[in-house]
Amino acid sequence: MDYLSGQTQSPTLDFSPTPCDVRMRAVPMPALESPCLACKQHASCLPAEFADAAQNVSGKVLIGRRRLRKGQDAFRQGDRVEYLHVVRAGSFKLRFGLRDGREHVSAFALAGDLLEPGAIGTGRHVCSATALEDADVCFVAFESLMDARGDSAALLREQLPAQLARELVRSQRLLMLIAHTSADVRVAAFLLHWSQRLAERGYSPDEFQLRMSRNDIGSHLGLSLETVSRTMSALDARGWIVVEKRRLRVRRRRELAQLCDDALPGGDPLFTREIAVAPRAEPRRERAQSLLEA
Amino acid sequence: MDYLSGQTQSPTLDFSPTPCDVRMRAVPMPALESPCLACKQHASCLPAEFADAAQNVSGKVLIGRRRLRKGQDAFRQGDRVEYLHVVRAGSFKLRFGLRDGREHVSAFALAGDLLEPGAIGTGRHVCSATALEDADVCFVAFESLMDARGDSAALLREQLPAQLARELVRSQRLLMLIAHTSADVRVAAFLLHWSQRLAERGYSPDEFQLRMSRNDIGSHLGLSLETVSRTMSALDARGWIVVEKRRLRVRRRRELAQLCDDALPGGDPLFTREIAVAPRAEPRRERAQSLLEA
DNA sequence: CGATAGGTTGACTAAGCTCAACGTCGGTGG
DNA sequence: CCACCGACGTTGAGCTTAGTCAACCTATCG
Predict the structure, then answer these.
(1) For B135-146, what is each residue's pLDDT tens digit?
(2) pLDDT average, residue stretch B211-221
């Protein structure tokens, strides 16, 4: 069963005799021998290297795998951080509940992604990781991994901060997007990003399935679900995408990217200022108008 | 000259014979002998430990200090990441330019803060670090620091990711704040956060000076400068704070905190749901209204 | 002492939120 | 098998918040 081959279909997983209990607590499987090496995702899986490293050094690294049905949580907000979770197949949303009952979706995760990298520093999970479809997740006991000594420990020393830093930059970008752009830019950027991430995993970037609800997208982007829906409809009406419920087709990648362009950080501020005044086709306002009224 | 003693006054720094050139490039001073140990900030300075560690192990660690006048940059967006910068005195804004000429302020930094922790993974600085007042910054050559071996290298291995992870969580919080709350909550949260950070550094949490412009605050919070101004005026009219230009007095901390309460992540989602329906005094709408029309 | 940057306030506008109605799909139970 | 239900998505109407534009004031700095 190859999780990379299918286009936008959910992989058919076997759920019958799973080695995890009903309450979905993360119970480590005892002593799989280098399961990461056998994993189809191995090449693209970031923390596989961690696992390898740890495995090579000490036999005590606890590693395991779990299958989750749509809607189940890999871990919950408030849980102790005991494992490093990696998505093997399927997709997740990372969400945390607000005091007033609403929830905020802080990220979406695909195969190969580390679930909540920020949890590494904190003692407890800030987010819950909820499967958006039937999914498969690997986990490595965190403590045992960090205790690993020797040559391969260098991987930990260098890969982990790098991963965190990358996540941090990603987070800053999203923040900027939400703080400084209008709904259409946010949605377009989100779709392009999702498309790109699918492409990186061998799926078609131009035709795919959104695994999350409009509500999830809205929460992620700081928009109401209605606005997400409307904006997508508007992009559809423009002919830039085709939306049919959660099925999505990208028709005008160039135009979508152009729409997001202003929201990207420029290079040297001075240089930015130069190109900002010169060859810009039309101010943002105009573009938004034409989008919503075409 | 003690940078911690003065209340809200800018520390009087001597700029006459500074060992950094006019273009403000980060030129390392040669071989100060453990300057971090002599630093008044040492106890509260996070990366001082890094420096110590590195210093103890290899004499080749390049470390230095620079003084910056208000408006000058410790580094610029696009610069190669060569040094780890730490604020010794004064304050900074971290900003990056957008392609359309606007700028986004991603963070503010105070004494003891690491400037742009996210830069550690990336080869180049994503932000410029601009002094909001005359300031003093320490820097350590990054490469030489990472090459340090031995016992104290453990500090690097553990402190750095922890710092990054903390920053990541902070960033997520801010994102949530911006995505899900109204202008008054954002401003109140910002003021409380600023106040708290000053308190941590020994300043009064109830009376202080904002070092950044309304524009900076707005950019940081995803608001226009006018909205920031108006919101502050409204809080003032309510008697919760006293604003006079950049001078600020906190009068009703409790009420301010209450205003932000809903925006905080709850504990267990289930528990959250329970308290959400019961003892909540008034829905958000009401509160916002009363704030703006009192 | 004028120039300039920053702050406040007002009037108007518009982007996006809320409320509501309606349609579709998929699951579940009679 | 069909009817019902709940979750999700779409679309419309009206309203609210915050953005825009503008005038004015003050402090600061050459």
Answers:
(1) 988 888 777 666
(2) 96
Alpha-carbon distance of A110 to A108, in angstroms, equals 7
Nucleotide closest to A221 measured between CA and C1': C16
| Chain B residues near residue A219 by CB distance under 8 angstroms | 179-180
H helix or E strand, kind and range, residue B190: helix B183-200
DSSP letter at A136? Answer: E
B101·A172 Cβ contact <8 A? no
Tally of CB atoms within 10 A around B286: 10
Q: Which two tokens stand for residue A91?
A: 């997709």
List CB contacts (< 8 A) between A178 and chain B: 175, 178-179, 222
User: Could you say which of B102, B157, B171 has the minimum Cβ distance to residue A180?
Assistant: B102
Q: What pLDDT is stored for residue B52 in this prediction? A: 57
- CA angle at A226 for the pair B268 and A104, rounded to the nearest 5°: 20
- Digit-coded pLDDT (tens) for A95-132: 998 887 888 999 999 988 889 888 877 788 989 999 99
Q: Cite the DSSP H helix spans in chain A.
A: 35-38, 48-57, 142-147, 153-180, 183-200, 214-221, 225-238, 253-261, 269-277, 284-293
Q: Which of A37-41, A169-173, B143-147 has the lowest mean pLDDT?
A: A37-41
CB A122 within 8 A of CB A64: no
pLDDT of residue A25: 36
In this prediction, residues A129-154 reach a mean pLDDT of: 74
Amino acid at A23: R
Q: Which residues pair with B282 in a beta bridge?
A: none
Angstrom distance, A189 CA to C19 C1': 29
Buried b (16+ CB within 10 A) or exposed e, A224-251: eeebbbbbbebbbebebbebeeeebebe
* Strand A135-141 relative to strand A83-89, pairing: antiparallel
The model's pLDDT over B248-290, given as tens digits with 9 standing for 90+, comes to 999 999 999 999 887 777 654 444 333 333 333 333 333 333 3
